[in-house]
Structures are given as structure tokens and as C-alpha cells.
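Quick one: C-alpha cells for this chain, please?
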Amino acid sequence: MTVAVVGSGHNALVAACYLARAGHRVEVLERDEVLGGAVSTVERFPGHLVDRGSSAHLMIRHTGIIEDLALGDFGLRYIDCDPWGFTPGSAGHAPLIFHRDLDATCVSIAAACGERDAAAYRRFVEVWGPRSARVMRAFGGGPTPGRLVRSFWGLDAKHGGSALSREFLQSGDALLDTYFQDERLKASLAWFGAQSGPPMSEPGTAPMVGFAALMHTLPPGRAVGGSGALSAALVRRLQSDGGVVTAGDAVTALRRDGDGWQVHTASGRKLHADTVIAGAHVLTTLELLRGGGFDAAVLDDWRRRIRVGPGIGMVVRVATNALPNYPGSSADESTRGLQFLVSDRRQLRLAHGAASAGELPPRPVVLAMSFSALDPSIAPPGEHQLSLWAQWHPYRLADGSDWAGHADREADRIIAEVDSCAPGFADSVLRRHVQTPVELERELGLLGGNVMHVEMSLDQMMLWRPLPELSGQRVPGAPGLYLTGASTHPGGGVSGASGRTAAAMALRDLRRRRFSLPRRR
């Protein structure tokens, strides 16, 4: 059987690898010359391997996909981010250092926030570690009611299940206020949780904060050579099983062709495929179906109901001649993981409120990552490289102005935020590359500049992502077409779980088709 895969994002490549391993003829079609979508790395500056999208890999290290596909045999290697999190000290307060080791983390919290919060953090990890492991289990397959029940069955049984339902549905802020007193600790964990997109004031965001507990089991990992090393290993794995990857040839239409599909590309090719795995943004995929016999009114209704959101953020990638120097901390403590440059949740709330109104944040909220401290291969000798992610920044500005007129000034403000925590940082910057929400859409196909494709709000997760009708990773009336990527369960981030689920569904259906075909006499 022939399988066409639309797009080369990491979920699409994961699906392609499983299908090729099962013996199917697989071709991945990618519009870009660079493979991997938002999980890719390019030489932005001389000698610097710079990520285009994701930088730290968290979820995929908990899924078993890396081991199942033996990606280590194809060049993938991770270095643990340890410490995995760091919040600078301020006003005489010690920094917060989140080590993989829980005891060491509690020692840091005790010094910075007091013994009460250190004990509370230990309780938080003990309670939310098992809960987050169950969430990860639920993320590992399709969001069917039965699977979700099995994933969480028995958890918190001593509370009759009430703690499970109430605490999972509460906001991240409510969870933090329940456990902790120190605002800087709350802000650090809220900023960690907000990397999923929504503010921690939204219902259902408690599990996003709870994922911090898993970092003491297996912390975020940095792929040696850059984030794109994951995609490169997947491509090599795919090719070893006979799969083909074609770059620079965008899919322009998907049409039913008998029992299969006809895949049209920008170069004029028309490929017949028994199965199609669509790894593009769900709105892009729906447009590919337009004109192919599908009800335009239904497609328009789906598009209207899928909420992309106002945009999440922007990134400044910088080459420097030094790592940031945070007072009172060594480079080993501060630069090997996620640097939470926030001390009060009010800053997060003001930034999100401004973005919702189409305004730039009063003060950018920055997550700094300096992975050249872990992996010197991504920068030339004597230089370093940082990714400065800032939330929230709207895709459309309320005054109608073009993002091009704001990009450099906003990049200056983001760099200034780092400099306020690590004096002298601004002077260390040699070169920079700015990715506004508009640039994220243009380069990576992230519509609306949303790196999660569609909002990760409670009503667009699990059984409802991106819509109830599409949550099974199928399109009604389109047999043999499967959806994957951040638009589908479990959502954004680097997990690969959606790709594995799509492949499992396709393989199951292909087996049924093969056995149902009439036998030749």
C-alpha cells in the first residue's frame, strides 16, 4: 500500500516511520526546502546552528517513541537540562534553582522562599508526579472516552475521585495558591505552565503547571546539534525502511480517487495514494480538501469554529560572545535549562491582557535558553547562542500597524529584559534574528503565529481538539485520510504522540482493507 504524508513536521515524520517500518511505501511531501517544520535547525549566523521553532524537548522523552523507533541508532542524542529551571535572584533574595534532584531543588527553594514552601514543593511533586504521569499516558493515544478512563482509573481513589476531577479542572493559578506562599515561586511555575499557551488563570490549566513535577523524573532534553536533530534522525530512520522524502514541493490539493487519494503538488505531480497522513495545520488541510467534492459549507463551518487565537509570542535568536551572567549564580546553575525571567504573575497577566486587546505587552515576559552551554557544537569557539521566547504578542495589532515596524524595537525590549536580570548581556550580543508572529506564520506555516496551531484551551483539548467531529484524527467523509500534528490531540509541543496514533489507526485500517479485498482465483 502507498502512503502520502503531507508535511514533514515531527509528528508527520513519526507517522511515516511507523508506516514504513510496517512495510508500506511512504513518501513525505514538504513545501519547504528545510525538513522538520517547527522542529528544525539552520545556520542563521556563521557557525551557529539555530533552531527555527522548538528548542527544549520535554514530552517526547516520556513517550517511548525514541526507543521504539531506535532513533539513537540514527544519530539522536540528548543531554539532560539539569538544572532544568532557573529564576534569578532579586532584591536580596537567592535565586531559585530547579534541579532534576528533588532534594537539591527543595534546598534551593528553602533558601529563596523559606522552609514552608520547600516542604510544599515536595508535596506538590509527590501528588502531581503520578497525576502528570497519568496525563502523559492519556496523551499517548487517541482521546477516546475509554482510554481516558483507563488512564486515570484509580488515581486519587481515596478521595472518591473528587480530587481528580476538581483539581484537574481548576486553573494553574488556583493550584499554585493552594500550595505556595512565595510569589516568585508561583510566578516561575506559572511561567513554566504557560509555555503551553493559555494563561494560568484559565480553567483546566492546573495540569500544565503539574507537568513541572515530571521534570524530576526526566527533565527537558536538548538534542545534540539542535532541535532539528530529532527530525533528522526520523528522516534517516524513514529512509532506512525505504521511505522517500521530497522537499520543496508543496501539496496543493487532496482529491478522492476511487478507494484512495490523488495528491496534487506545486510541481504538477499527481500521486495516487491508498492513505494520506496530513501533518499540516488543520486549517491548511481543510483548504486542501476544498473543491474535491467536499461540502464547502461544512468546511467553512469547521474553519469558523476552530479557534486559532490571537497569537502566542515571538522569538529573538541571538549570537553572543558570552553567556548571561546572573548575579549570585554560576553558569552551571543558571544557563543549562529554562531561565524564567519573571518574579510576579502580574507581569504574565498584563502581557496576556494586552495581547488579547491586540496590544504589545507593557513589559515582555521572557524565557531565555542558552543551550550552547550544554552543547558547544551549535556555536563557534568563543561564542554562544540564546533563544529568547516572549509571551504574549498578538498576531494582529489593534491599531492596524504592520509587525515589520515593531520587530526591532520589540527585540530591543526583549534583550533589555535579559539585561535587567544579567547586567551586561545586551553588550554581549553580536547578531540577532527576530521571529515575530507574522514571521512564524510565513516561515513555518504556523497560522496566526500560534506555535500550538490552535488554542490549548480546555474546550479545544482531549475529546474536543480541534473539534469534536475531528478529534478522532479523521475527517468525516474522507476515508483513508488521517490528521496529525499540533492541531490534534494531545496538542502542541514536541511529543510525537499524535503521529504514532495516526499511524496506528492507518495501519489498522490498511490491514482491514487488505483482508477484505477479493482473492484472485
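The mean pLDDT is 93.
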